Amino acid sequence: MKTAASSFKHQWLLPIASGVFIGTSYIPFPPWASLFCFVPLWLFWERQSSLKNVLLGGFLTTFIYTLIGFNWVTYTLHEFAQVNWFLAGIGMILFALFGHLFVPAAGLLWYFGVKYFRWPQWLSFAQMAVLTAICEFGLPMLFKWNFGYTWYGFGLPVYQWAEFVGFTGLSMITILLNWPLLVAWQKRRELSGLTILAGVIIVFIGLNVAGLGLKNRLPEPEASFNTLLVQANIGNTEKHAAAHGKGFQTEILKKYLTVTENGLESNPDVAVDFVLWSETSFPSLLGGQYNDSYYARVLSEYLRERQIGMITGAYAKDERSGLITNSLFALDRQGTVTEPHYSKTILLALGEYIPGEKKFPWLRDWFPMVGNFAEGPGPTVLLQLNDYKIGPQVCYESLFPDFSKGLSDIGAQFIVNATNDSWYGTWQEPYQHLYMTLARAVEFRRPVVRVTNTGISTVALASGKVLHRSPLNQEWSGLYTVPYQKNPASTFYQRHFELMPSLLTVIFVGLLITGFFSRREPTE
């Protein structure tokens, strides 16, 4: 009895191990266990006879890896939502429980598949991998857990394949490669197990070698521009106050102008084509009648005197709804706002809008501290400045490949992302958000220029190469020369955007059909 009880306790170490493996293989950690991180959990599932244990194992894995990889949510709740640390901790626990339900969802589907179709073991293992990849792709999540980004963060050339399959596809492939390693573990005392392990290693090395070839065959850029990225390091207290019209506007604008001037004076021999400020860095409204406001005139006069263009984040007002928008504006060398400007479309739930508020207006009374922003027009606008075709995006819109695809489809030569990451701490989220944003450069082979309020600001070239990164939480400005194509060709991923999900669906259906004809006889 003691042996059985001990064995029962020890088996729960398997989903715990998967949680640790996944969490410590995500940015800013290296992807050391990405290719086998699901193996312990899947072994645990295979040994279970009850749905309850399968689901608990899935929840335990996601709870642990979310605590490890996304513990910055605690800091954000404290800093942005302005709740005390105890409540922030409770919020973190709830997010860890329910933020990434794709793993228990995959376990649920797999359990019923095994129960009703009586799959043999090899097919059971295959469906674990396929269902996990399908659920990771298809289930909505506030912050997607993508297993492809870490290859880019660690600099392994396999990330170059994102030009063909996207980082979504790389995430699917990473999950699927856990399947042969699961089989190799099961057969580890046999020659076939070593053969499978060697095969996976050879395939992975081959993908990386081929990735170098993909990078080296890119066309030479046709043109370049010089941009000065400005990071003024405005504190959250000041940002909050300025956003609600409670002061600090003058101090914030002065600080941005000072850091900009220092950057220009440090590069007197370089003709800067435009200056780039971060999300909502201009501490007032712009657009329409607000272009004549005091702060807008100060900025316009500065640009006219320096004869330099600018792209800046600012608030605007939506004419239809009367609500405020989180927007990006371009200003020419005369300090004149060039329309159209762009307003953020993919708003942050519980930060910039309340989900369900349109149907249940009383939610606004319950959560008055949550922002109430109007949505923008989507990836349908290019900023007009110096004849460049500039694709604008604000903050975490960069996490959605279809958004950057839309900008690429309408001819963006490069993408500008303006972000404020000051709410997230310093050691995890800034690096995660950085590589998730810069990943779009590889998928669509267009440079991505990223500027933030507190860091990390930098540029990714079409090759995926990341240029000098700004420091965190410091006033800083950096000059970048960015090569680009005037008429960039569409990538394979851009033209065949749904290829990988479609292939994964075909594999799933194929395995279902195979399973139907290879069902095990029920045991007596």
From TrEMBL:
Question: What Gene3D superfamilies does the annotation carry?
Answer: Carbon-nitrogen hydrolase
Which superkingdom heads the taxonomic lineage of this protein's source? Bacteria
- Which cell locations does it reside in? Cell membrane
Name the lineage.
Answer: Bacteria, Pseudomonadati, Pseudomonadota, Gammaproteobacteria, Methylococcales
Give one Pfam hit by family name.
Answer: CN_hydrolase
Its biological purpose is as follows: Catalyzes the phospholipid dependent N-acylation of the N-terminal cysteine of apolipoprotein, the last step in lipoprotein maturation.
**Which keywords fit this entry according to its UniProt record?**
Acyltransferase, Cell membrane, Membrane, Transferase, Transmembrane, Transmembrane helix
GO cellular-component terms in the record? plasma membrane
Per UniProt, residues of the CN hydrolase domain are 230-486
> Know the name of this protein?
Apolipoprotein N-acyltransferase
* Transmembrane spans: 12-45, 54-73, 85-110, 122-143, 158-179, 191-214, 499-518
